[in-house]
Amino acid sequence: MKILLAVFGLSPYLYANSPYGQASLKILSGVELFVNCTGDSEIKKMENEIKERLKYRLESSNVPFSGISNSGGALKLLLSGFKRKEGGFFVYASLQLHQRAYLAVSHEYMDCQTWDTWKMGIFSANEIFLETEDMVREFANDFISANGF
């Protein structure tokens, strides 16, 4: 049945009604933010500033903070990169929400990734900050849309 619906252009309806993506944010009471920067030393040095900027962006978007055990989720930015000889940094960044999700097949809950976005490219140091903030802005917009405010 899902294949037929997807063929006729109804796949967004199926995705929107799944417990993943934006729909998974409706039941989210808040997030706990984690930032992990790996790669060369210049990338690692950015970790604290990136975390502070992302925390500020979440707070200014009214995304609540809560412990993972309180129906919240772990919002994780994983950023890896290295400086190029030609200038700039080659970067791969992934922002993922991990939370408990209900598995209808086994009637159990499982910790899993329910929302994500990523970016890859060559960026200056300032652009890395802007790009990661843009990823959090995307999360905040989905959170606001899912919760109707």
Question: Can you put this structure into words, describing what you see?
Answer:
The chain is α+β, with helices and mostly antiparallel strands and 149 residues long. It has a single domain, classed as Rossmann fold (3-Layer(aba) Sandwich). The chain has helices spanning 2-7, 11-16, 41-45, 47-60, 125-147, and strands at 31-39, 73-83, 89-103, 108-123. Strands 1-2-3-4 form a four-stranded mixed beta sheet. A hairpin with a 5-residue loop joins strand 2 and strand 3 (89-103). Helix 4 (47-60) packs parallel to helix 5 (125-147). It starts with a helix and ends with a helix. The model is unreliable at 1-18 (pLDDT under 50).
Which structural class should the secondary elements be placed in? Answer: alpha+beta
The major beta sheet can be summarized as: 4 strands, mixed
Count of separate structural domains: 1
CATH class: Alpha Beta
Provide the spatial order of strands within the biggest beta sheet. 1-2-3-4
Query: Can you tell me the residue ranges where pLDDT is under 50 for at least 5 consecutive residues?
Result: 1-18
Beta content:
25-35%
Average pLDDT figure: 84
What value does the Rg take, in angstroms?
17 Å
Tally of DSSP helical segments: 5
**What's the N-to-C terminus distance?**
34 Å
Q: Name the shape in a single word.
A: elongated
Which CATH architecture would you pick?
3-Layer(aba) Sandwich
Overall strand count: 4
H/E order of the elements?
Answer: HHEHHEEEH
Q: From the 3D structure, determine the CATH topology.
A: Rossmann fold
What fraction, in percent, of the residue positions are helical?
A: 25-40%
